[in-house]
């Protein structure tokens, strides 16, 4: 069947609270898979389990045929899974460029002397660094971050910080990208751009995207599949049309506006 | 006279700068001042002394061995004690470093006794260099040069190497570092090792002007701590400047105002800084927007 990314019987509790409750789903390679659900439904907890920040109580997470549940975040990153956070996790005193270069950490081969290039311009380290910079410049161009390039991230407006985090995740060259509410806090113009960039990332870079998003318009327009959860349980999963037609989803999202 | 005082001030400031640097590196990564830093350095200086005294190694090899030893102690403490604690609170961390402090203090007393020893650099005690009107002792020159060299090497390490950049990343935001694939535990161990090495370099430079006993680093540690606070505790650059400034002010104060109260200057400075600029004199701040 599908062996790109599968979650089986995943459960995670906090004290008495069951945040994720025997959750199953599978994502196809190259697709955009969205997760919706009210606040407190367990969406972020799911991401924390996938990215190794939390250890699941039980269940399996398989990525490209390998069990990855219970691994540490740095090991998950080296498996090719990158993520962004609902509340940004960035190096706020570093520039956009430096943040993105840190995103390339796992690809840097020359260990200790990487970047000590002022002495020998043709060294392996110098060539490697140039290679990384080129990749990062490419991402900066893609996300239109040129003007933020050498600015400390803490001094940027919120919408741009979110883009820097997206860029940092891309710098890892992931096969699977987890986005936790990427458009939250963005202006509608920024959201529009983000919408196209996420499409570009999927289509041009071939990255599979697993996304938590509250903006239903965006979810309906770009997702291949949608999973709705509540109280850590699956409510419904299917194409955007199928999910939008589900009575609970209509009640939660469409009815209340 | 004045320039002489400045030179002496820079020399003691060099030690404070190294001690402060060692402290700030840990503080940024673990959010705790390492109260065992002084004893870790003292133990390593004793190791060097032991090698030289037993005619087991010549001076420079003994120092190199002591630095390696210090590195191992730092790594080992992080690996065997700190890492075992599940999400320790700041207070628990402080207690752990205080525990280590007493443990090492006990070991030094047990192994080498409390009686004072001498550990000097292999240079003529009072050899000096005459620079115009200023006379500089070789010991001061070596101290200042070593500290400047350390600062330069550390600067290059932190800004130009993969490992140093990863250390800075862990210090700033360990979640973000982790998610980028940085092995945070490994980096923490290495950070503790690095800090212990820097502290030991300060100890070896300080030993020639002080009797070598278990309390060797008490005074420089307190001064280094003051220098760190002066510089904001989170800025290595600030810590180094804080060290030099404290050394100079302390020496001028001792000469022109009161020799008795010279060592109180450090604490007066801490209080003033905490009153007027709690984030330290040199810390830049970008508030995190949420
Ligand atoms: N670290 C934690 N400790 C205790 N409870 C938690 C923790 N993380 C999440 N939870 C709980 O798990 C539930 C799901 O939270 P979360 O995954 O953040 O929801 P969502 O992202 O869907 O809004 C909530 O009830 C929340 O209080
Ligand atoms: Mg959430």
Report on the structure:
The complex is a heterodimer of chains A (257) and B (290). By secondary structure, chain A is of the alpha/beta class. Chain A has two domains: 1-80 and 174-257, Rossmann fold; 92-172, no CATH class. Helix content of chain A is 35%, strand content 23%. Chain A is built from nine helices and ten strands. Chain A has helices spanning 43-50, 73-78, 96-103, 124-142, 158-171, 188-203, 216-222, 240-244, 247-254, and strands at residues 5-14, 17-27, 32-36, 58-63, 66-67, 81-83, 176-180, 208-212, 225-230, 233-238. In chain A, the strands form two sheets. Chain A has a six-stranded mixed beta sheet with strand order 6-7-8-3-9-10, sandwiched between helices. A four-stranded antiparallel beta sheet of chain A has the order 2-1-4-5, with helices on one face. In chain A, helix 3 (96-103) runs parallel beside helix 5. Chain A starts with a strand and ends with a helix. The mean pLDDT of chain A is 91. Chain B is an all-alpha fold and 290 residues long. Chain B has one domain: ABC transporter involved in vitamin B12 uptake, BtuC. Helix content of chain B is 69%, strand content 3%. Chain B has helices spanning 2-30, 37-53, 59-80, 90-112, 138-160, 162-172, 174-179, 184-206, 218-230, 236-256, 265-276, and strands at 128-131, 134-137. Chain B has a two-stranded antiparallel ribbon. In chain B, a hairpin with a 2-residue loop joins strand 1 (128-131) and strand 2 (134-137). In chain B, helix 9 crosses helix 10. The interface between A and B is medium-sized, with 42 and 27 residues. Residues 43-44, 86 of chain A line the site of magnesium ion (MG). Magnesium ion binds next to helix 1 of chain A.
